[in-house]
Automatic annotation (TrEMBL):
The keyword Transmembrane does not apply. PROSITE patterns: CHEMOTAXIS_TRANSDUC_2 (PS50111). Signal peptide: none annotated. Pfam families: CZB, MCPsignal. This is Methyl-accepting chemotaxis protein. One of its GO terms (molecular function) is transmembrane signaling receptor activity. Residues 60-286 form the Methyl-accepting transducer domain. Belongs to the methyl-accepting chemotaxis (MCP) protein family. PANTHER family: LYSOZYME-LIKE PROTEIN-RELATED, METHYL-ACCEPTING CHEMOTAXIS PROTEIN MCPB. GO terms for biological process: chemotaxis; signal transduction. GO terms for cellular component: membrane.
Length: 435
């Protein structure tokens, strides 16, 4: 092929987008065309890299705004829930205040009842004290009867002794009268009468003594009963005193309860007003959050449209064949998948596990195990690229599987782990491009 034909063929390839073509000629025209090709290739690579950088930045912004939108939606829901909760709290505080009024009224009634009970206890204590005092007085009088009955018993005993002695004297007089014969008959009659009277006296004294004994037994029983009544009255008085003190404690306790309930009412009223204010402010925050969420959604939509335009430009640029184009496009592919995973977790996109290929069949993988191996196989960055690239694909599949199995939280947790290997892939690609 002549130099002219090589130049013509090379220019035709340039026109078709293959800027890697070279004439290989050593003449001036061939060298000029080859230099033009190198300049065009460098220009396209630089333009592609800039567009890739723009696209990656747009991906990051859109992903961040998508997360912000989701966060704002959650915040809006929570602020609405918080507003509802604070309104319920305000209502509850109002109910507490109303119940506190009832509690104060009941406590006042209890204090009044306790005061009445205390007055009744004091009255009962007075009655019991009076009963005990009267019982003591009666017991004192009965004890005097005991002493009188004892004195009577002593007198009766003296009468019995005198009657006995009289009877003996009458017996002796009768004996002496019998000795005197007829002269003593009159005296014997008198002695017999005296004897009969002394016997009657002794019998009456014995009966009196028996009655006095019975009377003393009854008096002892009465004394015992009065003593028991006094003891009971004293125990009742002691119990009444204890009851009186307890009633006073009850009065103090209910007074304290009434005071505390009043404080609770005041606090509940203040808290109710504060809760109403919080609910009002929370509604305002919710409206603000809703507005901001709408603005973010609008901005996110615009950014997605811009993203679509840049991706279209990248698609057009990717049709041009340049030496390092795959290194730039691989970064775009990589960041695009990361963005798609974020959108999926946020519910904006559906991805099937079959859509996630292994690391050997994506654009970067196909290049890595063919042309890339030939061109950069000796580079440390190229060797190190395989491990994080495979890890990104493994995590991507795990995220998609968890999400499709309903484990959104698990998918979101694994998504957080993609950052490290993803950043390592981008860093290694940039190192290779700088070679």
């Amino acid at each position: 092929m002549s130099n002219k034909d090589k130049v013509t063929s090379t220019l035709e390839q340039f026109a078709a987008g293959n800027f890697t073509a070279r004439t290989g000629g050593q003449d001036a025209m061939g060298k000029a065309v080859d230099k033009l090709g190198l300049n065009l290739e460098t220009m396209v690579e630089d333009l592609l890299e800039k567009q890739v950088g723009n696209c990656i930045n747009i991906f990051e912004v859109v992903s961040t705004m998508s997360r912000m939108t989701d966060g704002m939606s959650n915040m809006d829901e929570r602020t609405l829930s918080m507003a509802a909760a604070t309104e319920e709290l305000a209502t509850t505080n109002e109910q507490i205040a109303g119940s506190s009024d009832e509690a104060v009224a009941l406590a006042s009634q209890a204090v009044e009842a306790a005061n009445m009970g205390s007055a009744s206890v004091e009255s009962a204590l007075s009655v019991l004290s009076e009963m005990a005092e009267r019982a003591r007085s009666a017991m004192s009088e009965v004890e005097k009867l005991v002493n009188f009955s004892s004195d009577i018993g002593t007198i009766v005993a003296s009468i019995q002794r005198i009657a006995g002695q009289t009877n003996m004297l009458a017996l002796n007089a009768t004996i002496e009268a019998a000795r005197a014969g007829d002269a003593g008959k009159g005296f014997a009659v008198v002695a017999g009468e005296v004897k009969a009277l002394s016997q009657q006296t002794a019998k009456a004294a014995s009966e009196i003594s028996q009655k006095i004994g019975q009377l003393q037994g009854e008096i002892d029983s009465v004394v015992t009963l009065f003593s028991e009544n006094v003891e009971r009255a004293e125990r009742g008085g002691s119990a009444a005193e204890d009851a009186g003190r307890s009633m006073q404690d009850v009065i103090v306790a209910f007074s304290t309860v009434s005071e505390q309930v009043h404080h609770i009412k005041m606090a509940a009223s203040d808290q109710g007003e504060a809760s109403r204010e919080i609910a009002k402010r929370t509604h305002e925050v919710s409206e603000l959050v809703s507005h901001e969420s709408h603005e973010i959604n609008h901005t996110s939509t615009q950014m997605r449209e811009l993203e679509g335009g840049i991706r279209g430009q990248l698609d057009n640029l990717s049709k041009n064949q340049v030496s390092r184009g795959v290194l730039s496009l691989a970064k775009t592919d990589h960041m695009l998948w990361k963005k798609r995973l974020v959108d999926m977790v946020l519910g904006h996109e559906n991805i099937s596990p079959s859509d996630v290929t292994d690391h050997r069949h994506c654009r970067l993988g196909k290049w890595y195990y063919s042309e890339g191996q030939q061109t950069y196989g000796h580079e440390d960055a190229f060797v190190a690229l395989e491990r994080p690239h495979a890890e990104v694909h493994r995590l991507a599949r795990e995220i998609v599987e968890k999400y499709n199995n309903g484990d959104k939280a698990g998918a979101n947790a694994v998504l957080e782990n993609v950052g490290a290997p993803s950043s390592e892939v981008v860093s290694l690609l940039e190192q290779l491009r700088s070679k």
